[in-house]
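anyone seen this seq b4? input:
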Amino acid sequence: MLPSGRIHVNKVIRFRFTGSWNGVFRDIPIHYETPQGFNYHLDLNISSVSDEGGQPLEYEEGREGQYKRVKIWIPGAIDQARTVNIEYSVENALRFIDPEDSDFEAGYDELYWNVTGLQARVYTGPVGSSTASDATSTEIEYRYYFMTTEMLAAREGMTISMAWAPGVIARPTSFVATVRFFRSNWIFLVPIVASILMFRLWNARGRDPSRLAVTPQYEPPDRMTPAEVGTLIDNSPDMCDITASIVDLAVRGYLKIEEREQTGLVGWMKGNAYSFELLKDSEEWSELTSHERKLMSGLFEGGLRKVVDLDDLEHEFYKHVTGIKDGIFNRLLQLDYCHHRPDQVRSAYVGGGIATMVFLLVGLGFLGDSFEAFYFPLSARIVAAVLTALPIIGFGMVMPARTVKGARQLEHVLGFQEFLDRVEADHFRRMIDSPEMFERYLPHAMALQVEKKWARTFEDWYEEPPD
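predicted toks r here
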């Protein structure tokens, strides 16, 4: 052991061969899981492998899980005993225990070393899970001699622990310790890199053009249906947008909504029921947008049904919802209000986040069996996978960006929403001069989710249900 903390190891192993053999495998553990679930990796470099006469032996380095596997060819290994000398060095085999984690005021430095696969202790048994002490340690002229008292079974080894006061070995600086940590746990750099890249991507492609001042608007945007208005404001066609479209079609005379009292069995279960009556046949739907035609077709089976109860649509109408939403998105694209369909953009990033998480969990698990740089404990992979997926999915949900034209139209929508939301004020209420205007704006109020205040403001206008 050098004052720098580097350890030189000369391991002498004597094998007895029964029958004819080409050589041996020597597995040296180089990955350990810390109590916090991090990976601790030993920087182990083999310098030579030789026989009992000092002659070099051919060898090959590989991986077997958390072990470095050394494949050694031994000529003439037939019914005889042969000795193999393996020399290697380790940069970071020492553990430096701080005072707060120690029973000693100054802490201590420790060599915790797996011998086969000052204060001294020795353990035997499976690597990383045993505290048995079927071994002895003896101090001989400033040296320690360790010997097992029981035969070691397959996959068992002997580990020694030696501790001494700080100062004998140079402790690594905070910078060096940080570099070593991330070299063994570079997987925790992946979430940081993912967050930076996603922020830069969102900043470059996911942000709307700078918003101008929003002022109250007293008319809804031209050429925009209530469903399109509701979708533009949150990039999502919700059921309230579709419901607003139904009311808008009723206001425009394409259908009639009728409410009636419904009485159940023996007259004690009461409630309100709704039905839709078709007023304009399918030949008159040409002026409607694509999503409005799909909505009318879903309600009235393409115009074949003239009257339909809302209860009858419960198990049928959902089949048409996807097509209606597609029509709304396609209409916003046609109007050049967004670059791409927001739902497809979000789905792509959600899928990318999930795929990245699966790769870090499963893919690195397989790669770690063959490549030393990709080995990490399962707990570390889980934490890194979740922390990486979160910024990808999170930024992906706000990634859909509007065009400049869409941003200007959004400002109009927000201004109209402000007017609808503040209509209780006298100077705004005077803008609505007839029940017809109230009805015309009602679907937009529903899409912008201010319909309750809108209806409450003008509830004195109707003594009977409107036409």
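The chain is about 35% helix and 25% strand. Residues 117-124 have pLDDT under 50 and may be disordered. kinda curious what u guys think
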